[in-house]
Amino acid sequence: MARRRWIGLTAVLLIAAAAILLSRHLHNVRLETQLLRTDPDVVAHDSQLVRFAVEKARPLYTAHCAACHGVDMTGSTAQGAPDLTDRTWLYGDGSVFTIERTVLYGARSGLSKSHDVSDMPAFGTRGLLTPTEIQEVVQYLLALSGRRHQNEAARAGREVYLGKGGCGDCHGGDARGNSDYGAPDLTANVWNSGGDPRALYDAVYFGEHRIMPGWFGTLPLGDIRALAVYVYAASHR
Ligand code: HEC
Ligand code: HEC
User: Which of 39, 94, 151, 208 could form a disulfide linkage to 120, CB 3.0–4.6 angstroms apart?
Assistant: First the structure.
């Protein structure tokens, strides 16, 4: 009698547990579908979807992105990979839509829809500027970004910037960058390859060709959407 009651109780518990698991699974399937169907910039304002996406993306970020952008998402100057938590963007305005575009197709990734309009020219190796001119333009960059600099060299560097260097063609006459070219804002004091004089000198002397892989075709679209929301959430805390 006692044994039969015990079996009955176990069966009821098992059925209840299965029902809970099933309903949780269906709930997740529904959120997963909703995450992909909803306009990306609307997702950003739906706290339930953001929470779901962040949970889903956390292990994906660790597996696929942390090696370059760092476990804490603050980037790596060695890799030239940007800080993803600040509000300074190379591409777009930091909306889920524009972040997702970068994650989908990358930069200089070889995919046809990749951001790939221009590179940072190698002014030194190509003999476009002399080492002295590069040192001067570096002093101007330090001045622009509010760092310690030598006034006279910075003034000469401004001439190089606007004249012979033609830096404004891509970074803008005001040096605030141009998202269409992926040319960084040089006034924000946010440096993807390091902001000390040596790193700036190397960037101008050797040029740059940083590559962000595109994930279209490698990761499912739902994972990419979740990662875009994850990056958005990290930069809009
Ligand atoms: C091999 C290194 C590498 C990996 C792996 C990588 N990235 Fe990047 N990522 C970069 C680099 C380098 C850039 C900057 C590209 C440039 O300078 O034009 C970048 C740029 C970005 C940007 C644009 C930032 C901006 O300022 O506009 C986003 C967003 C981004 N990565 C997200 C991710 C996510 C999410 C993953 C994982 C799915 C990932 N990255 C994996 C190297 C990497
Ligand atoms: C043809 C367009 C173009 C011109 C001209 C150009 N740049 Fe750039 N610059 C870029 C691009 C694009 C990047 C980002 C490259 C990358 O991510 O691989 C960049 C990157 C940089 C960086 C690195 C920033 C960082 O975050 O580490 C510095 C510094 C820089 N440029 C300074 C200059 C100066 C100074 C000049 C003029 C002497 C100049 N640029 C001229 C397109 C240009």
Answer: 208
